[in-house]
Design goal:
Low-confidence stretches: none
Mean pLDDT: 92
Number of strands: 33
Distance between the termini: 20 Å
Radius of gyration: 38 Å
């Protein structure tokens, strides 16, 4: 009877723990990135009253006679099932779709979280609501990111000035009319920028210069010669343009210059110390320069120069790349958020809304989203708690009935003991 009470007492304690776990899950039904847990029970030591015996001397074998001594809590298991994704519209809110954890730094230790409700502090640091620094890689001045380097804090400084950029590459395309006769010309303007960001118009004039209809033997294909001028301070001046003789075959494809580029050497235009390349596009390239019959549509596709600009907004791609949009119309990578995966995520230790690495979780495998088994990021959304209320209330009932059953065992054992005590009367 004392043994029954001891066993039932262990059951009471275990079901009380189960109630605590279920209560914590229900309390966090609206907690961003929360993962629910379940309790696992096991029996404890068993007292053997009679051991097993093998069949012998014409008698059958006997099974062991054992009495259990109650139950114990083996552990709690965390469920890392995906939570529902909720739209917020805030660019700093991020949700992981798939496996992986955000890496954060706080109180001198590296932690991991699924709660992507981030914000920016006064210094432009991307932080959690508790002030922990979100880890990743910062881009250099050119926008390049090296994900092989050690991770660190990610900064997004809204209003930060982007220096001007001299035009060094302009992509040209369109069509020069094959119906043109010798001497016909077309002019386009490349609106470039000097090293200070000031606008420098560069005019390119295409003039049909061949073939000579009287040439013997006849020349196959057409030839155009390009000349260039620039305007600075209201004055227009000619500038040397190399590889400026363009040759087209009978199919209208550019055959010369061989690299499909024209060039202006650096320093020939005031304020533009670097060379300028005009890319015409190789055969088969969409939007390349061609010569077909019909209207002339030659024009400028892109140019890489820009005036100074300030960071106005940003967005985060599925790979965690943070791309800033500047007031000069340019965009540039600012940084990239890192994700970590573990061989055994259930081995992580929960701590203050996050998790930390343990000996049984395995080492954190840090990298970019979408690679190495890591999930993708969704910007402007949050992953909600994965607590299933219907399942939790069912567990609540099981815990309640289990507690009641064990309490009844203790009551019954007490009544039996009372009868034994009363035998003396």
């Amino acid at each position: 009877m004392i043994r029954a009470m001891s066993s039932a007492l262990s059951g009471l304690r275990n079901h009380q723990t189960m109630l605590d776990v279920v209560g914590n899950d229900i309390a966090n039904v609206s907690t961003v990135g929360f993962k629910s847990s379940t309790t696992i029970f096991s029996d404890v030591l068993t007292q053997t009253l009679q051991g097993a015996a093998a069949p012998a001397n014409g008698a059958g074998g006997t099974n062991p006679a054992q009495i259990g001594l109650g139950s114990r809590l083996v552990g709690t298991v965390q469920s890392f099932a995906q939570g529902a994704i909720q739209r917020t519209g805030r660019p700093t809110d991020l949700a992981v779709q798939g496996d992986g954890f955000f890496v954060v730094q706080g109180n001198g230790q590296q932690l991991y979280t699924r709660a992507g409700s981030f914000t920016l502090d006064a210094a432009g640091n991307l932080t959690t609501q508790e002030g922990m620094l979100v880890q990743g890689w910062q881009a250099d001045n050119t926008g390049a990111i090296d994900a092989n380097q050690a991770i660190g804090g990610v900064q997004i400084r809204v209003g930060e000035l982007q220096p001007p950029n001299q035009t060094e590459l302009a992509e040209l395309g369109g069509n020069l009319s094959a119906d043109s006769v010798l001497g016909d010309s077309f002019t386009i303007t490349v609106t470039g920028n000097d090293s200070q960001g000031a606008v420098v118009p560069i005019n390119l004039t295409y003039t049909k210069t061949g073939p000579d209809p009287l040439a013997v033997p006849p020349v196959v294909g057409d030839e155009w010669t390009t000349t260039a001028t620039y305007t600075v301070g209201g004055t227009t001046s000619a500038v040397a343009l190399t590889d400026n003789v363009l040759t087209f075959d009978i199919n209208g494809e550019l055959t010369a210059p061989a690299d499909h580029n024209m060039n202006i050497a650096g320093g020939l235009i005031p304020g533009m110390p670097n060379a300028i390349t005009f890319e015409l596009g190789a055969a088969g390239t969409p939007g390349r320069l061609t010569q077909y019959a019909g209207e002339a549509t030659v024009g400028v596709k892109t140019q890489d120069g820009a005036a100074a600009g300030t960071l106005q907004s940003f967005n985060v791609s599925q790979s965690g790349m943070i791309v800033g949009s500047y007031s000069n119309g340019r965009s540039k990578a600012i940084g990239q958020v890192a994700l970590a995966v573990f061989t055994n995520p259930e081995g992580l230790e929960r701590i203050a809304g996050a998790w930390r690495e343990t000996a049984n979780s395995g080492l954190a495998q840090v990298g970019t989203a979408g690679g190495g088994g890591r999930g993708l990021l969704s910007s402007g959304t949050l992953e909600m708690s994965n607590v299933d209320l219907a399942e939790e209330f069912t567990r609540l009932i099981i815990a309640q009935r289990g507690f009641q059953g064990n309490a009844r065992v203790i009551t019954t054992a007490d009544e039996v003991l009372q009868e034994v005590v009363n035998l003396r009367r």
